[in-house]
Amino acid sequence: MRTLVIDSATEACSVALFEDGTLLAGELRMLGRGHAEQLVPMIAALPDRGRAGRIAVDVGPGSFTGIRVGLAAAKALALAWHAELAGYGALALVAAMAGEDADVAMNGGHGEWFFRAAGDASVRSLTPADAALASCAPLVAGSRANELVALRGGGRALSLWPDAHAFHLLGERELGPNPRPVYGRAPDARLPATAA
User: What are phi and psi of 25, to 5 degrees?
Assistant: First the structure.
């Protein structure tokens, strides 16, 4: 079965096309912003314009806009192609890319980092100081790995961003049906209080 992988939840934007676990083609761009403009042309540049029987998409946590762009594209293509849809977590992919048990620290919002401890699937949004207290694995991976290792005062750092090319490293248990966004922290906006 062919699988199209869409990853636009972070500063990195990547797509990859797999056939029975073998990478056919893909592309990674470090964008920061502009995922909405770049993602669909990246998919269209893949063999057969990326058409696949299964679509896997990064559900976050990460950038609010990046997550929504990826999910919208994945859902639209799955509907058009009658494809199966699955979601996976950004930090789960980075942990798999590290190649060994690692704590993962990624850019969050409002001065916080998204943190996942080695061997623990839960993701928390922590201040850098709290992440340093929570982190104890010898290896730290992610976009904030260098900073976290420096705050801890030791360990090894591996700077990584989620990359669709590494999708094959994820186990099937990391994939979920009916993907929904995982933002990693509560929304900043609040509904106005109703008048008494």
Answer: -170, 160
| Long-range contacts (CB closer than 8 Å, 24 or more residues apart) made by 35-41 | 35/8, 35/63, 35/65, 35/66, 35/69, 35/70, 36/65, 36/69, 38/13, 39/6, 39/8, 39/13, 39/15, 39/69, 39/70, 39/73, 40/73
Render each residue's pLDDT in the chain as its tens digit; 196 residues.
999 999 999 999 999 999 999 999 999 999 878 889 999 999 999 999 999 999 999 999 999 999 999 999 999 999 999 999 999 999 999 999 998 899 999 999 889 999 999 999 899 999 999 999 999 999 999 999 999 999 999 999 999 999 999 999 998 889 999 999 998 665 555 566 665 4
- Measuring CA to CA, how many Å separate 188 from each of 11, 64, 177? 20, 11, 28
- What's the rounded Cα separation, in Å, for the pair 12 and 193? 38
Nearest-angstrom CA–CA distance, 109 and 83: 33
140 Cβ partners below 8 Å, 6+ apart? 102, 103, 104, 105, 148, 149, 152, 155, 156, 157, 158
| Whole-structure pTM value | 0.91
